[in-house]
Amino acid sequence: METKKIKRALISVSDKTGVLELARALNDAGVEIISTGGTAKLLADNGVAVVKISDHTGHPEILGGRVKTLHPKIHGGILGVRDDKSHMAEMEKHGIKPIDLVVVNLYPFEQTVAKAGVTDAEAIENIDIGGPSMIRSAAKNHRDVVVLVDPADYQEVVQALKSGEGTTYEQRRKFSLKAFARTSAYDKAIADYMGGGGESLKFDLKKASSLRYGENPHQTAAFYAPGEDLIYTGANQLHGKELSYNNILDVSAAVMLAREFKQTCAVIIKHTNPCGVATDPDQLAAYKKAHACDAVSAFGSVLSFNTKLTAQTAEEIGKTFVEAVVAPDYEERAVEILRQKKNIRIIKPGDFWLAESLQVKSVLGGMLAQSPDGILLNEGELRVVSKRKPTDKETEDMRFAYAVAKHVKSNAIIYARDGRTVGIGAGQMSRVDSSKIAVSKAQSPVKGCVMASDAFFPFRDGIDAAGKEGITAVISPGGSVRDEEVIAAADEYGMAMVFTGVRHFRH
Question: Is residue 361 part of a domain?
Answer without folding.
Answer: no
